[in-house]
Design a protein that fits this description.
14 helices; Aspartate Aminotransferase, domain 2; binds ligand P1T; 390 residues; single chain; alpha/beta; globular; five-stranded mixed β-sheet; 36% helix
Length: 390
Amino acid sequence: MKFATRAVHAGQDPDPTTGATIVPIYQTSTYTQTRVGEHKGFDYSRTINPTRLALERQLASLEGARFASAFASGMAATSAVLGLLSTGDHVVVSDDLYGGTYRLFARVLERYGITFTYVDMSDLGTVRAAVSAATKLFWVETPTNPLLRIVDIAGIASLRRAEQLVVVDNTFATPYFQQPLALGAQIVVHSTTKYIGGHSDVVGGVAITDDPELHERIKFQQNAVGGVPGPTDAWLTMRGAKTLALRMREHARNAQAVAEFLDSRDDVARVYYPGLPSHPRHELAKRQMTGFGGMVSCLIDDPERAKNFAGRLKLFSLAESLGGVESLICHPGRMTHGSIPAEERERRGIGDGLLRLSVGIEDATDLIEDLRAALDATAGTRDTRPPLLA
Ligand code: P1T
């Protein structure tokens, strides 16, 4: 079945006892067992819950996989996957990535003796040079947060030895636009807080794999560490995911229009969007993705102006997060990526003039009008566009 059909139907069987067409919210922590050692497949809700199970089946199907484990947040999903590693193991990581993922790696997992090397993963030679005998995992974000770099998933997978895992955080692209498992990754992680939930009303995460043995190990982490979503959060996420296909089409259409508008302005120094032909990896994005997503970043030379501009917008709320139907704008340096030390941020290109837009599904004309009015109101028309980075 095609993607949009699976989004609506996968895992969504009518309730076996009542016939309820919509999977109920099984708001229960436990299940009455028939006798000692005998139950109906459900014993305790940290381990298994019917609402969560329906969500896991739906999301596995969207990534073209058999197995998924849902978590209370994207970070809980990420830590469960990293929980597969042991002291002494080494990870090669994209050097542009969500600040919270960096924080988990640098400030929690390093204390347990796992080491991380951050590289520009859009350069496969650099990735190859970072691999050592201890390397057990490649952590890939693509498009990256917040610079929208594109990493060649199949290229990374081709570097992998049998005992190594390629894990892709597919939050920005979503399974609608990018299928990392088909490109050679072993595990896909999402912050379902974002596009999958889609309505900015629930925090969640998921880890997806088609490998039964890996699934057992992730399930073990899920149960042993316990970062599970409650049934109501699982249900909200599942409801959101049913409309993923049609929302993503609108997000991408609007983001393209917004990116083109910003690119046409002399007072916007640089626009980062994989759907622009000027993006250094536009051709790779075209091959690897079926659409370019809803995230656009831009650079305004004067950091004060950037902040004023962000604060003046009426339709784009100044907020962390992304992927909801409503448009958001954020200042990564002061918000989502604040946990990366300032010097390191600057080195990675996350300067004070950088803004990140999560383009919603409002009418594009209104969004562009909002951007135009705020740019005009904050004045300045210098064109100091720097050369594009590779
Ligand atoms: O917030 P949480 O559901 O725990 O997900 C963490 C996470 C993981 N991966 C990516 C690519 C992310 O963007 C995030 C969360 N990001 C934001 C809150 C943000 O505004 O970028």
